[in-house]
Specification:
alpha+beta; ATP binding; 628 residues; elongated; 6-stranded antiparallel barrel; 13-stranded mixed beta sheet
């Protein structure tokens, strides 16, 4: 037996927990009886050094003195011996505190658990394995070590002003190690806000942590405008630093997302500068949800499993969790020819006008044309809108606003190779034929100008502050879905971040745009239209904080979302994912990558800005109606 193991036991502050057996007792019934009697003995009084806190119920062991202890700028080695009686309660991911000889403590996480043999036991035999390892295991034959990863040093522990600092001190040998079960220490060590957007319970191994008998709530920091003080709260709101919610089918992704989005519906106001006047205003958030599965309209209704359950309701209120159907929710159904509107609660129509193509000609290019054809299409689009503006429409065709059908009629008028349009832009016969084939497509006929409630006309109602706007697209598929959603996204993004001729309803309202099945719209580009949307999305995520625009991307395939967009997302929520997906997503915290494929429903890893990556367990019930 190595001297290291002997030193571990010699330095154990509870010496009677491990009394080295002789060769005969190690494998005998008498040894078991001695161990049982030792467990019943009164624990000797501990010698507590000056400045070290008294042992607590959460103390499980001590810093190992017989192995090297070091902390450096590059790596660390801090190991703790786990007492026999505490071993069944220690888990990977448990948070640990180790006191220094003052009022500060090392805050760490359990990174590795390992056993080392204590006796000269040889268990490599058939005879040994005929005995049940669980029923007859003698823990005194082994040493259990917890390898710890230091996260911070906490100052002022035990006071009302706990502060976190960098790890620049080494813990003393034999210092007691205990599980972190103090709310202030946990919040400070992990830098978790004390309020904000409730995302679930801090957990380890799928089990919610408890502090003083209460589950520990995890919040995303989301400061805004304090109506009581009249001041802007400190910090960057999480809502405008963008979010990703990723999870495989069956892992509770929509359920989890609904609960998080429900928390953004409040009276909270965010400071925003009016585009025209330059006046600083405080306005409530408008939440827009692109809903491809027709699920989010249910957020307007209560979950009957919660209502009337006093225990659940008291718990939610105590932790500031908003629940119940959203009163101010509107459903706007895109009108597209050849489709049947999805079944939802009461809804309104929404039409995509051809005029959204003005300044966005790539919307008409779901392909990769040659540069010559692309230039000719852009010239034709620009010429159409210029002529329309100069003439104030086309009264002879009874056209008072630009339409797709009128655009085709305009091209038909210039079919002659000697027409001014073709002559001025040097569009030859072959190129002209390519233009006509490219722009005359069934999808454009079906999507543009269907219905009467055009987006620019009703934008003040779609993007009204304090409202949840649900846009279901389950009745669409393929090219119709792509054109509709990308037209909506481009309208929102460009009116948010551009400076010329913007829609004031979009520009002057704080917006959070949640896009489910986001990989369908923000993946690598295969066409000019997709390239255009990605360029605008990249600009939006970079400037979102400035213009009060947040994106929440919801997907089962985060590996398909554009890397430049992913890199700008600050809040990442990963539910269970397939191992091949985990391998391809660089933003997944490495310490959780191995476990994610085995996560249960509602179990997630959350990495928020300036906060340690932690495990969170979502609520087992949805805070609003959820049919699936």
């Amino acid at each position: 037996m190595s001297n290291d193991i002997d030193d571990i036991l010699d330095n154990d502050p509870i010496a009677d927990d491990h009394t080295e057996p002789d060769d005969s007792s190690a494998a005998s019934t008498g040894g078991d009886e001695e161990a049982a009697r030792a467990d019943d003995m009164e624990v000797p009084e501990r010698n507590v050094p000056n400045g070290v806190s008294e042992p607590s119920d959460d103390e499980f062991g001590h810093v190992v003195a017989s192995e090297e202890i070091h902390v450096s700028r590059r790596d660390y080695q801090v190991n703790a011996f786990v007492r026999t009686g505490e071993r069944d309660d220690i888990r990977l991911g448990d948070y640990v505190q180790i006191p220094y000889p003052d009022d500060s403590e090392l805050f760490a996480v359990t990174d590795t658990l390992r056993y080392e043999p204590y006796t000269d036991l040889d268990d490599k035999s058939d005879a040994h394995n005929q005995i049940s390892a669980y029923a007859d295991l003698d823990e005194s034959e082994y040493v259990q070590i917890a390898e710890l990863e230091p996260l911070a040093i906490l100052h002022g522990v035990g006071t009302d002003d706990v502060e976190s600092g960098i790890v620049n001190r080494i813990p003393k040998p034999n210092s007691p190690a205990r599980l972190a079960r103090d709310e202030d220490c946990l919040r400070t060590g992990l830098n978790i806000p004390g309020d904000g957007i409730f995302a679930g319970w801090l957990s380890v191994g799928g089990e919610a942590m408890t502090v003083d008998g209460e589950k520990f709530p995890y919040y995303l920091g989301n400061p805004g405008f304090d109506r009581e003080t009249g001041e802007v709260e400190d910090g960057e709101p999480a809502v405008f630093r963008h979010a990703l919610v990723a999870g495989s089918t069956g892992k509770g992704k929509t359920h989890f997302t609904k609960n998080v989005l429900r928390q953004f519906v409040s009276e909270k106001r965010y400071p925003i500068r009016h585009h025209d006047t330059g006046e600083d205003q405080q306005r409530r958030l408008n939440l827009v949800i692109i809903d491809p599965e027709n699920e989010y309209w249910e957020m307007g209704e209560d979950n009957s499993d919660i209502g009337g359950d006093d225990v659940i309701e008291r718990t939610l209120r105590r932790h500031g969790v908003k629940y119940g159907g959203v009163d101010d929710l509107e459903v706007f159904v895109p009108q597209v020819a050849g489709t049947n509107a999805p079944s939802t609660t009461e809804s309104r129509e929404l039409s995509i006008p051809f005029e959204v193509v003005r300044g966005r000609p790539d919307l008409l290019m779901p392909y990769q044309p040659t540069e010559i054809t692309r230039g000719a299409i852009i010239d034709c689009i620009d010429a159409y809108f210029s002529c329309f503006d100069e003439q104030g429409g086309y009264p002879e065709r009874d056209v008072s606003r630009p339409t797709y059908e009128d655009f085709l009629a305009f091209l038909a008028e210039h079919d002659d190779e000697h027409s001014r349009l073709r002559a001025e832009n040097d569009i030859g016969g072959g190129t002209w034929g390519a233009v006509q084939r490219r722009v005359d497509r069934g999808t454009f006929h079906d999507v543009f100008d269907e219905g009467t409630d055009f987006l620019p006309d009703i934008s003040a109602e779609v993007f009204r502050e304090g409202q949840v706007t649900v846009i279901p697209t389950s009745h669409l598929n393929g090219a119709k879905d792509s054109l509709t959603v990308l037209s909506l996204l481009s309208y929102i993004i460009e009116n948010k971040i551009d400076d010329y001729q913007v829609d004031p309803a979009v520009r002057n309202t704080p917006l959070l745009v949640a896009v489910d099945e986001a990989h369908n719209y923000f993946s690598s580009a295969d066409s000019l239209r997709e390239e255009y949307i990605l360029r605008r999305a990249r600009a939006a995520v970079k400037q979102g904080r400035k213009y009060k625009l947040g994106l929440c991307l919801i997907t089962q395939n985060p590996d398909d979302v554009d890397d430049d967009v992913i890199k700008q997302i600050n809040t990442n929520i990963f539910l269970g994912l397939k191992s091949e997906v985990v391998d391809d997503v660089s933003s997944i915290p490495s310490e959780f990558a191995k476990d994610l494929p085995n996560f249960g429903k509602g179990q997630a890893v959350v990495k928020a800005p300036d906060v340690e990556a932690v495990e969170v367990t979502g609520l087992p019930y949805c805070l609003t109606k959820h049919g699936n």
